[in-house]
Amino acid sequence: MTRSAFRGFFRTSLAFSAAVLAWAAPGTAANAAVPVEVSHDAPAGARADAARGCVIVYFDLGETLVHTAEDSSISYMPGAAAYLRELRKRNIEVGLITNVPASWGETDAERAAALKKEVDRAWKGSAPFAWEDFGDRIRTPRTEAERKPAPALWERARADANGCRLVYEAETAEETTVAASLCYVAYQVGQPSRPTYLPARVIERLKHGS
After folding, report:
1. What is the pTM of this model?
2. In terms of DSSP H, where are the helices of the chain?
3. pLDDT tens-digit series, residues 101-157
4. pLDDT digits (tens, 9 = 90+) for 44-92
5. Which segment of the chain is annotated as a signal peptide (predicted)?
6. What are the residue boundaries of the structural domains of the chain, listed by start?
7. Could you give the CA distance from residue 168 to residue 153 in angstroms, rounded to a whole number?
8. Residue 11 and residue 111: Cα distance in Å, rounded?
9. 8 band by pLDDT with thresholds 50, 70 and 90
10. Which fold does the domain 3-207 belong to in CATH?
11. In a 3-state reduction of DSSP, which class is residue 153?
12. pLDDT tier at 207 (50, 70, 90 boundaries)?
């Protein structure tokens, strides 16, 4: 997705004008100002979420936070560990919305436990994956029909959010498009000419309703 297409997508008919990015001339540092605004046309529920003073950042897992190498080992994507630490420092809650086999368990908790074992078994790195940051906010498919890009996982996460504003970060435009259509502030990670992840200070502004 080009930068101009990205801007146009988030400024049009979605409930939020999610992550409206203003970039200066080429070569501007990645920590340039990134204003975020809520559309005046957003539904009342979306505006209420922004005013509640809480935000939860959900991520895809593979190739968003972690990378699987050719030897099947798993490690953090570049910058992911530092980004999670920054969110933790700012007391911003995080979660995962990720596809795993439905056969891995009857509940999200059981499937999350199986996911942790799979990742930890193949993990390569000096520091383990920060599972403790995610708590019970790991949403996985109960059936094959719930697998992303079906909307079920995003809908379930929203139902459990207690009115908090929601962010979703993933590496594919397909997933961020679905998330944005469900009133998430959606951000496609790893794109050129802008920060790898949605800057933590921008998320903090969302937390306070900016």
Report:
1. 0.78
2. 3-11, 44-51, 80-89, 108-122, 152-159, 173-181, 200-207
3. 999 999 999 999 999 999 999 999 889 999 999 999 999 999 999 999 999 999 999
4. 344 444 445 899 999 999 999 999 999 999 999 999 999 999 999 999 9
5. 1-32
6. 3-207
7. 12
8. 36
9. very low
10. Rossmann fold (3.40.50)
11. helix
12. confident
Task: Report the alpha-carbon distance of residue 131 to residue 129 in Å, rounded.
Answer: 6
Concatenated DSSP letters of 85-141: HHHHHTT-EEEEE----GGG-SSHHHHHHHHHHHHHHHB-SSS---GGGTTT-EE--
> What is the rounded CA–CA span in Å between residue 174 and residue 69?
23
Question: How far apart (Å, rounded) are the C-alpha atoms in residues 210 and 99?
Answer: 32
- Name the nearest CA neighbour of 163 among 50, 44, 41, 43: 50
Amino acid at 190: G
Beta-carbon-side half-sphere exposure of residue 26 (alpha carbons within 13 Å): 2
Angstrom distances, CA of residue 154 to CA of 22, 30, 84, 139: 27, 29, 20, 8
